[in-house]
Design a protein that fits this description.
Layout: E1 2-6, H1 10-19, E2 29-33, H2 36-45, E3 48-53, H3 62-71, E4 77-82, H4 87-95, E5 100-103, H5 108-132, H6 137-150, H7 155-164, E6 174-182, H8 197-202, E7 208-216, E8 221-228, H9 238-248, E9 251-256, H10 265-278, E10 285-287, H11 305-313, H12 317-331, H13 337-357, H14 362-365, H15 369-377, H16 382-403, H17 406-419, H18 427-434, H19 438-449, H20 453-471, H21 476-482, H22 488-499, H23 503-511
Helix pairs in contact: 11-12, 11-13, 12-16, 13-16, 15-16, 17-18, 18-19
């Protein structure tokens, strides 16, 4: 559920955002606006259900905003907060079906019941709208389960509303299974996840009754819910794993919970999500976080980084990858995400240090969406970490080999300079093209061509300016900008130093030649 805070006092809005535990009240997202126009834009873009609003604001009143909301039939529960104890304001707020009216300053413990009442009213209105719109029982069940799993409905209220809506969620244990879908770690552009709903809905297990399958916020995460008397063994999910892989084309990890009551569903969902975040297991398996013998997180023991560094110094990417895979295999199936995070840090430091020793700028080499994807996925599983290590080695080896061919590097820089003479061609800018340290690039450039980088750029600019002066009738000021000099006087100064005459004199002298 979304809430909106509207007040021209930005500090008051910030205080409400920070000091109120919105999640405990069932509010998933809080939006802010500081005038009526901004509030209208947010209401038109987002499904706002609860609004806390000031009345007197510079660009219009909160009463006008609520009147606009009622005209358009937005289902918003409104609470007014104002500095003015004005009977007319209070009367108008009631006419517009405002839920509450508070005078500032208001203590937070006084405000909580009002917000909770607004959330309750919004939920009742949402349920009535769903019932009136002809929503199917299956859709109503999915909507309800999503609200409970996310914490929007809790405890006694969840039980009461499930009974009111006659949903099949009471009087028997509920089996909660989370399915996390992982794309191929080597895919250059991972495709969108096809809906796994058909496979989840059609899968049957003795002793269970399927209830619903719903997506949850997060990285390709789905909740499978069934009624059961006892938790089935993990091996019974093998057919579901196969069906989900065939349906989605993604690898999948299932995290199986304990049978629980409806009012414990949120806590069980949170527990399973935390287990998925902490564990980094082999793909396509069933996790049972509370199983006997499931080990706690072991202390991180780094691999032989000296041997790995030696392999990379020999440009032996395959040998490096074999060492990484051997280390990952030795970690076993119960490796944690924290262990992989620490291992990823060691690999990054190793590769970055080697790149620096070759005067290569590591942060620029890895400044890409592809690099971000490998980095983020590395802690998901052993296979993802192996793929990340292979990517690091591939980038390192290719960058170093290119760096060992200075003529090729300098040709790349020269071609770029010739095509971009009108730009600000600093050493820092040019070094980013070939991922080199700026000072190292300047030294390498002079060593290869016998002229400094700055002098080369100046010579090429003057050469292009001379051609334009002779071959065109373009204004000298425009020619100056075309070759990268914004200050006309500076261009004239450099031109005179180079040729002993002004650009105008140069044009006349060459125009007079037969």
């Amino acid at each position: 559920m979304n809430a909106l805070l509207v007040d021209d006092d930005r500090y008051f809005v910030a205080a409400l955002r920070e000091k109120i535990d919105w999640h405990s009240l069932g509010i998933e997202e809080v939006h802010s606006a500081y005038n009526i126009r901004g509030a209208r834009e947010i209401i038109e873009r987002h499904a706002i259900r609860v609004m806390l609003c000031d009345i007197e604001m510079p660009q219009g009143s909160g009463l006008e905003l609520l009147a606009w909301i009622r005209e358009r039939a937005y289902p918003v529960q409104a609470i007014f907060l104002t500095n003015y104890a004005d009977f007319h304001y209070a009367q108008k707020a009631l006419e517009l079906q405002s839920l509450d009216y508070y005078l500032k300053p208001v203590a937070l413990d006084k405000l909580y019941p009002g917000i909770a009442k607004a959330v309750g009213r919004a939920r009742e209105e949402e349920a009535r709208q769903m019932a009136a719109s002809g929503v199917s029982r299956a859709e109503l069940l999915e909507w309800f389960v999503q609200r409970v799993a996310s914490g929007a409905l809790r405890g006694e209220e969840a039980l009461r509303r499930a009974e009111e809506l006659r949903l099949p969620l009471l009087g028997r244990p509920l089996l909660c299974v989370l399915a996390a879908f992982l794309p191929d770690p080597l895919a250059s552009t991972p495709g969108a996840l096809p809906s796994p709903r058909p496979a989840l809905e059609s899968w049957q297990m003795p002793g269970t009754q399927f209830l619903c399958a719903v997506p949850l916020p997060g990285r390709n995460l789905w909740l499978y819910l069934a009624a059961c008397e006892s938790a089935p063994p993990p091996e019974s999910f093998a057919s579901l794993l196969s069906a989900l892989r065939a349906q989605t084309g993604h690898d999948v990890t299932l995290c199986m919970g304990r049978p629980c009551a409806l009012d414990a569903l949120e806590a069980e969902t949170v527990r399973l999500r935390e287990a998925l975040a902490q564990r980094a297991d082999i793909r396509n398996r069933v996790l049972q976080p509370d199983a006997a013998g499931d080990p706690s997180s072991p202390a991180y023991a780094p691999p032989n980084l000296v041997k790995m560094r030696e392999a990379l110094e020999r440009m032996d990417a395959e040998g490096f990858r074999r060492m990484v895979d051997a280390y990952l295999d030795a970690l076993g199936e119960h490796v944690t995400a924290e262990t992989l995070r620490l291992f990823r840090l060691d690999l990054m430091q190793l590769v970055y240090a080697l790149l620096q020793s070759h005067n290569l700028e590591a942060r620029r080499l890895f400044a890409s969406a592809e690099s971000d994807r490998f980095f983020a996925g590395a802690t998901h599983s052993l296979e993802d970490m192996s793929a990340y290590a292979g990517y690091l080695a591939w980038v390192l080896v290719n960058a170093v080999r290119l760096n060992e061919q200075p003529a090729t590097l300098i040709d790349t820089v020269r071609e770029y300079i010739d095509a971009h003479l009108e730009q600000d061609l600093t050493r820092a800018h040019l070094s980013r093209i070939v991922y080199l340290n700026p000072d190292y690039l300047a030294r390498l450039f002079k060593k290869e061509l016998g002229v400094s980088l700055g002098q080369y750029i100046k010579d090429r600019r003057m050469e292009k300016a001379c051609h334009a002066l002779v071959e065109t009738r373009m204004a000298v000021s425009r020619i100056a900008g075309m070759v990268g000099y914004d200050k006309y006087s500076y261009f004239i100064k450099l031109f005179r130093e180079q040729f002993g005459m002004t650009p105008v004199e140069y044009r006349k002298a060459h125009a007079a030649r037969p």
